[in-house]
């Protein structure tokens, strides 16, 4: 989805991003709002950086050099809509799948990387550890960002922890979804 959105025209991208956002609001509104709240400063920064650093015609002539450019605002909105659609898709995935299912799915999808020598086992373990420690950090009662940062580097008393990955069989629905995703990706690349 993320790769296909890079190739979409402006109005098509806005329609697709709007549809994904609407679907996420209907299916997993709580998780979407949680992710948007956590990324709000990144989203705002992205828009401002594009609006003020891209050369072009000024949006407000009265502000002179302090005005954002029209082209920068347009590019910023494009990137913002791509990022919002990605966050909405992620919200649906995180809300509908358990952590083990998410890791098993990515483990299966990473099979082609073995052809170029990339270890999908290492990627799966790193993802599992990242999700685990993110969950641990969220459960802790910290009041400032400094305390949160210190708690990430504090030892957790977990040594020699073993991870077991439950593999699921691919069904006909999975094959159809992957096929549709590949067709959409190929169509978007044209």
Task: Give the helices and strands, then pairings.
Elements: H1 2-5, H2 10-53, H3 70-96, H4 99-109, H5 120-139, H6 145-153, H7 172-189
Helix pairs in contact: 2-3, 4-5
Structure description:
- The protein is an all-alpha fold and 190 residues long.
- The chain folds into two domains: 1-96, no CATH class; 98-165, no CATH class.
- Helices cover 70% and strands 0% of the residues.
- The protein is globular, with a radius of gyration of 20 Å.
- 11% of the residues are buried.
Q: Give the helix proportion (percent range).
A: over 70%
Q: What distance separates the N and C termini?
A: 15 Å
Helix-strand category: mainly alpha
Q: What is the percentage of strand-forming residues?
A: under 5%
Q: Give the low-pLDDT segments.
A: none
What's the overall geometry? globular
**Rg, Cα atoms, Å:** 20 Å
Q: Count every helix, treating DSSP H or I runs of 4 or more residues as helices.
A: 7
Structure described in brief:
The chain has helices at residues 2-5, 10-53, 70-96, 99-109, 120-139, 145-153, 172-189. With 190 residues, it is mostly helical.
């Amino acid at each position: 989805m993320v790769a296909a959105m890079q190739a979409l025209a402006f109005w098509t991208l806005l329609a697709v991003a709007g549809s994904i956002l609407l679907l996420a609001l209907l299916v997993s509104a709580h998780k979407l709002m949680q992710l948007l709240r956590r990324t709000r400063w990144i989203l705002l920064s992205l828009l401002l950086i594009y609006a003020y650093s891209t050369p072009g015609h000024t949006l407000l002539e009265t502000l002179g050099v302090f005005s954002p450019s029209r082209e920068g605002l347009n590019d910023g909105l494009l990137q913002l809509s791509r990022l919002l659609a990605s966050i909405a898709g992620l919200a649906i995935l995180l809300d509908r799948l358990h952590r083990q299912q998410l890791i098993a799915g990515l483990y299966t999808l990473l099979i082609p990387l073995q052809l170029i020598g990339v270890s999908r086992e290492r990627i799966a373990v790193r993802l599992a550890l990242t999700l685990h420690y993110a969950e641990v950090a969220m459960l802790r009662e910290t009041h400032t960002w400094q305390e949160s940062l210190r708690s990430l580097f504090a030892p957790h008393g977990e040594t020699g922890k073993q991870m077991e990955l439950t593999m699921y069989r691919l069904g006909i629905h999975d094959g159809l979804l992957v096929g549709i995703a590949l067709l959409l990706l190929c169509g978007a690349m044209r």
